[in-house]
Amino acid sequence: MEVEMTTAALVLIAVKCSLIKLIYFSRHAEHSTEDKRKVSIKRRLGLFNGGRRSYPILGGRLHFVKFETEKLNECLEFISSKQLHRGGVDSPSWRSGAQPDDIVIKATGGGAYKYADLFKEKLGVSLEKEDEMDCLVAGANFLLKAIRHEAFTHMDGQKEYVQIDQNELFPFLLVNVGSGVSIIKVDGHGKFQRVSGTNVGGGTYWGLGRLMTKCKSFDELLELSQRGDNSTIDMLVGDIYGGLDYSKIGLSASTIASSFGKTISDNKELSDYRPEDISLSLLRMISYNIGQISYLNALRYGLKRIFFGGFFIRGHAYTMDTISFAVNFWSKGEAKAMFLRHEGFLGALGAFMSYEKHGLDDLRIHHLVERFPMGAPYISWMEKFVQKGTQITAPVPMGAPATTGMGGFERPTSKGEILRSDASAALNVGVLHLVPTLDVFPLLEDPKTYEPNTIDLDQDEFKDYRARYWFKVLSDHSPDLVDKAVASEGGTDDAKRRGDAFAHAFSAHLARENEASLAVLPDLLMELDSMNEIDDFDVFKKRMLTDKKDQPYKRALLFVDNSGADVVLGMLPLARELLRQGTEVVLVANSLPALNDVTANELPEIVAEASKHCGILRKAAEAGGLIVDAMAGIQGDLKDEPASVPLMVVENGCGSPCIDFRQVSSELAAAAKDADLLILEGMGRALHTNLNARFKCDTLKKRRSNCVCSGSNQLDDP
């Protein structure tokens, strides 16, 4: 497991009337030995010989955190505890105890003015204000360009991610629903105008709801709506026409004629109405109107694509369904409401973009995003999305089934979604990982027809499987679990200490597994050398080894899977056999941790330890730059014949048990250009994905370390 150390950070903040959204970037710890290895391998792969990258790429993470404005002091304590305003807890200024002069935090939103003095008093920092509309648009453009599956639709409780053609993104309508609503027509990067808006937004829902229900938080009010029945409060068409439809103009009896209209004739006091019904009626009234006003503006400018953001939405399924129904109904299905996964952080992301504009280009990712606004071609962001806080089941209003929304379309019936709760003081919405270039894998037989998924998990019969398995896989990622545990307890020193203890304990467990496997590696190699045939590999050996003895493969890419015995006792002996035949071997591992998969940062140490037991591995590792210094403890009496071909390690650009060959690291793409053998190992890489993929060279697909082959010769593991 990797444990990230923050060596530098920049903090960006959007301070609004009700919420504070904070973003900070943390760089990965630097390791000089690791850097030497990477430089050596990149030189061998030709990435430094007139290559396109002439500047350093900084690995790291972009963190998203939210606080309620009424808990501003907790936000200030969070910034102080991580020393974000001074470069992070491992920065030179923090270690020296020196207080830098003129510390600036980029900020946007009305609160940037309201609370500026408090930030100066408590942290000694100045809030440098950025224009709110500029930031909203820049943040949305960044997300839609840089993050795959950022946008999605939400109808009838079903979320579907939208593939956006980057060349056809503009123009679009951006509807930011905060306390009020701003409607912005975006024509390109830096090209936009606010064309409309309304003062009826999230602040209206929260303000009226607070007055009428006595709820203490926005989310408490939202939870109430889940148990509401708006027909007890809203006047329906049937209430006016004796339970009948007004069919002449196409209105059903269950159409809302007037929100809260039924309370006019009822001889009741406020206390006689259920808070749940009030909350739902308010939510529907405001959401329907936002959807309708947004569509009318889209119609005015001839736009089909409308993106909704802002923390009023906050991933709430019923809110999104209601807005979507309004847009769909009034447009007769021609316009589409889409939502953003990082909906509440548009302004803070825009402030993030502004650093380079003001000359603070030490964090070069900003420079790249600004310099290449159509999507920086040399960097990419990978997401491990984590939900933190209490999970809420999506609202299933308890009204009569026939109750419908404004305009006569059926009421949304969201079921089974998991919603974010903002009940915790510091809600970490997610983490974006800055990774090297993601390129199309050059050995794909036909990238245009390539589909990585063996099974379409969006099909109805697989949705339960997807929910039970894949969502669990994501939530079980141990680094994110540590972050979640620490954040849930306010990021206190004690929480960090216990989080670090867990991380180290888990790492130690993996280390013990590696050590145990390494201990039996010499005996396994001796046993393999004495065997005439290799179980389960007879066909592979004949087709790809024996028949190739006079002309071995030039380079083999081995996609490794699990840490421990899987890589040490499975893939390394296979790599050794290929090296013995005179084939260059490139071990390909995850860029980021996923379950118990070994990572590219961990592999060199494992190879170095294994090399103490095998001269072939040692010579190949030295040739490939994996062993950059003299190794103590290498057995000097090993009789293996030396290998003249290199053994290398590259990252794949992934942080998942699966792999999508449309997006791989530039290192892997470069290594693939001279490769004529692929070996995919693991259920995720060779079965759940890529089982049906076709490649330009011989390919072996192995579900475990002991087989599936394709390409020119393709053998599948039964």
TrEMBL record:
It catalyses: (R)-pantothenate + ATP = (R)-4'-phosphopantothenate + ADP + H(+). One of its GO terms (molecular function) is ATP binding. The keyword Nucleotide-binding applies. Pathway: Cofactor biosynthesis; coenzyme A biosynthesis; CoA from (R)-pantothenate: step 1/5. One of its GO terms (biological process) is coenzyme A biosynthetic process. Keywords: ATP-binding, Coenzyme A biosynthesis, Kinase, Nucleotide-binding, Transferase. Its EC number is 2.7.1.33. It is an enzyme of class 2 (transferase). SUPFAM superfamilies: Actin-like ATPase domain (SSF53067), AF1104-like (SSF111321). GO terms for cellular component: cytosol; nucleus. The keyword Nucleotide-binding applies. It holds the Pfam family Fumble. Residues 528-703 form the Damage-control phosphatase ARMT1-like metal-binding domain. Its cofactor is Ni(2+). NCBIfam families: panK_eukar (TIGR00555). PANTHER family: 4'-PHOSPHOPANTETHEINE PHOSPHATASE (PTHR12280:SF20), PANTOTHENATE KINASE (PTHR12280). This is pantothenate kinase.
